[in-house]
Amino acid sequence: MTDHHHSAAGASHGSDEPAMAALLDLDAEVLHTFLSDVTSTLADLTRDEPPRRIVDLGSGTGAGTLALLRRFEDAEATAVDRSPELLDHLLAKARDRGVAGRVRTVQADLDDAWPDLGAVHLVWASVSLHHLADPDRGLRKIFELLRPGGLLAVIEMAGFPRFLPDDIGRGRPGLEARCHAARAEAHAEHLPHLGADWGPRLSRAGFAVEVERPFTIDLRPPLPEPAARYAHASLQRLRSHVAEKLSSDDLATLDHLIDSDGPDSVLRRDDLTVHAERTLWAARRP
Ligand SMILES: C[S@@+](CC[C@H](N)C(=O)[O-])C[C@H]1O[C@@H](n2cnc3c(N)ncnc32)[C@H](O)[C@@H]1O
């Protein structure tokens, strides 16, 4: 089911949507244990009345939507995103998994007027609230959307995932740390809410925060098969954010690492790790 709400910003947000879709899918695949832990926490919190109507805000390719439908077998989910390409990708995955009948997609820019999403038992917002121009307005809208007693799950990350050994960097170890510092500088301007403390903001919006739980994901070799592709896709995206800020040596090293055919490619290394940090806030509308 597709319900496209067109808005000025509802048009495509760039030509890198296929790369973004691949990265989000790999994120969900490599970090699937984390997703399963989070949905299990939500199942505990909703044991008395399992959610039947779920909304996934900034759903991307549906990592959350699909994990929630697996966990809550009687539920239906509405996935909301401003990208029609990512929503189409989500629907194709839902069809593959035989759950398309339980998913509706709504294209909307959540910085504009919100679509009518009905009354909801569970709202999921994973790594999406920090993209909003005014996340506090978003939290108030979510509060209105939820039925009394309904639950909001916010997942955000302290930083972007890391993969490389510390000693990488031509004559100057610490390439990945320098890349992330450059990215943080770029994001400080464009994404000021990334890494925010959401607890006080949830309280201010009227929610009762029931869980604040940090998760550290540390995968060591031998890594699962998609981890190298996840590292490759992540580092490619990182490059697009920091290329202009890196020294020519650092940029050359990074290019060797993401050159799929090159001898140093992350696709072939045996010394990669995956380190990611996410936090779950689960908050109830009283
Ligand atoms: C980092 S992705 C996270 C996707 C997904 N929740 C996940 O955890 O895999 C952020 C998503 O938020 C969406 N998004 C960003 N700003 C938005 C807005 N103003 N309105 C609706 N969706 C937005 C993007 O299109 C993207 O799919």
UniProtKB/TrEMBL annotation:
**Keywords attached to this entry:** Methyltransferase, Transferase
Domain (Methyltransferase) spans 54-150
Give the superkingdom in one word.
Answer: Bacteria
The Gene Ontology biological process annotation of the record reads: antibiotic biosynthetic process; methylation
Q: What is this protein called?
A: Methyltransferase domain-containing protein
Organism field: Streptomyces malaysiensis
Q: Which Pfam families match?
A: Methyltransf_25 (PF13649)
MF annotations from Gene Ontology: methyltransferase activity
Record carries keyword Methyltransferase: yes
